[in-house]
Design goal:
The chain is of the alpha+beta class. It has a domain of 80 residues. A 4-stranded mixed sheet has the order 1-2-4-3. The longest helix is centred in the last third of the chain and has 16 residues.
Length: 216
């Protein structure tokens, strides 16, 4: 398997008994042979190979160092992004972010990722929103008010609608505003309480802006 060719390049003790970490790849040179193995892994029919190939690429690639290799990575990533494998799509978005300066349609791809059915894809795009949004643009963020992704704040801690909160924080950053925070709660799956920040202060601010515009 191609996976074995990649893993056999690692020497010394692994940080974890299972899997591979970024620390394991420290000091590994991105040689032509390794680039070929990464591309072979990404082109494999085995999803384990593909995931590992993406991991090596994300950890080892420095943008604007090898134009042809970067073009090959993007070509494969654009193709794989059309799959329904959630973690593969998430890896593709990571490549778009890493090599976005080479993509004429970077903004289009990232706006599309904002509305992806997978929460991790949405999250990655949301975190990079300021790299593809127009100045003051918030419309693409507003539907996150009803985003249904739930996660724990910490192991065994309470639940939150993470992307609702992250999108509201991003709106604050884009608009240079700071909204008062009021926590809301809901019952999740009939047994757990989930928390998130109320968006009403944002709506009041937005409505006041539109009102002022109408008066001018």
């Amino acid at each position: 398997m191609i996976k074995d060719r990649l893993l056999n390049r690692l020497s010394g003790d692994r940080e974890y008994k299972v899997g591979v970490s970024a620390k394991d790849l420290q000091g590994l040179a991105l040689t032509d042979d390794l680039k070929a193995d990464i591309l072979a892994a990404l082109s494999s029919a085995d999803l384990t190979d593909v995931r590992l190939g993406f991991f090596f690429a994300e950890q080892l690639v420095t943008p604007q160092q090898d134009s042809q290799f970067e073009n090959d990575l993007l070509k494969i990533s654009l193709r794989l992004y059309e799959t329904n494998e959630w973690n593969i799509k998430s890896n593709c978005v990571s490549m778009f972010i890493l090599l976005g300066q080479k993509l004429n349609n970077y903004r289009e791809l990232m706006l599309r990722a904002l509305k992806d059915g997978d929460a991790q894809v949405r999250r990655k795009s949301l975190l990079m929103y300021c790299t593809f949004a127009k100045p003051g643009e918030i419309e693409a963020l507003e539907f996150f008010e009803n985003d249904d992704y739930v996660t724990e704040v910490g192991m065994g801690s309470h639940l939150i609608y993470e992307l609702r909160n992250l999108a509201l924080e991003t709106i604050e950053k884009v608009t240079n505003q700071k909204f008062k925070k009021f926590e809301k709660t809901d019952v999740y799956k009939a047994k757990n309480v989930v928390f998130w920040w109320d968006w009403e202060p944002f709506h009041k601010w937005k409505n006041s802006i539109w009102h002022k515009l109408k008066l001018t």
